[in-house]
Amino acid sequence: MPRIEDNARDEHFWHAIAERYDVAPGPINLENGYFGRMTRDVAQDYQRNIDFINRNNSLPVRQHFDEIQSIEIRDRVAGLLGVAPASVALTSRASDALQSLIRNYNGLQPGDQLLICDLEYHSVAYAMRWVAQQRGLEVIEISHKHPATHESVVTRYREAFERYPRLKLMALTHVTHRTGLVLPVQDIVAAAKEHGVDVILDGAHALGQIEFDLQALGVAFAGYNLHKWIGGPLTLGFMYIDPQRLTDIDPDMGNQHYPEPDIRNRAPYGTTNIPAWLTLPRVLQEHLDMGGTQAKGARLNYLRDLWVSEARKMPGIEVLIEDDPRLRCAITSLRFTHLQDQQPMVERLLKDYNLFTVARDGSACGSCIRITVGFTTTLDDINQLVNALRELSQGN
């Protein structure tokens, strides 16, 4: 068996993987963090499932999907995390799962405090502020310096726990969509538990590219999706609740569709994208064929390190994520230090160099450019990015 590091550099292998995807001509996509492409086989299977459900309508759904296939699919999703099937409920996206967990967490009293940071996904921050307004709570907001270190992040949370003794619940993002920082979840959760603070984990960008043991992380509540690094169709997500903590989350909007106790009552109830869920077994097989999370993560980090190592040498460019393997992933942001607003450089990368990236605001570091490699990214793409950054850093 080849070492995982060697496999990450095996261009023949990854070229064959890239050939599984249909890619339209046009700009080089370095914004793979929004959602992932489906492979050709997955897209074709998805289309077959759309056609099947459209032709047959509700009959196979009522007779088979609702009672059998959805359970089998839920069990396979639980297998991704190595957790009990009874701890997983299917949702349309990570945001749905996280918002439901936040609004239905029942361990809060007026005057309690909630904790968020500058790296949360906006819908998570909105939900925390909304709950605070509805229940007479106080939202505590902290920020992290950039580039962050493992120690600085953990210390920042410890300081918050000690300073705000009425904290009861916090949001925590495993991989932030703004800069790509991978937060040290296990250490933060352990510190939170010492102070009686529960954690709702946003794992949207983590699943499929970062290896983790959810139970070892100590997380009781989490939300994930399957359309980023797992490679499923859009509208596939799920929530996780530790079965021992199920009663700490109320049924969503009073949902009693399933006999209690059942985690599925904690998810928003409604008609799902059934063809997408029927496609998931093919998606998971493709995920395994690529080598699973270990191989995917190693390849993505290899490509990321190629451009980052060169960008660090360029005057006027600041890379916002350290090279500590505990903190980095496919997503890494940078900024041109002479500009507050990075959008003009995003536009130049697209117009002058045919490179599609995206600007992100909201973190304490200010505006930045998010660059996210993917499974169709080539060495030529990386070289084109490096050359573009070098020219732009020289004022060209």
TrEMBL record:
Residues 72-385 form the Aminotransferase class V domain. It holds the Pfam family Aminotran_5. InterPro entries: Aminotrans_V_dom, PyrdxlP-dep_Trfase, PyrdxlP-dep_Trfase_major, PyrdxlP-dep_Trfase_small. One of its GO terms (molecular function) is lyase activity. It comes from Pseudomonas psychrophila. It comes from the Bacteria. This is Aminotransferase class V-fold PLP-dependent enzyme. Keywords: Aminotransferase, Lyase, Pyridoxal phosphate, Transferase.
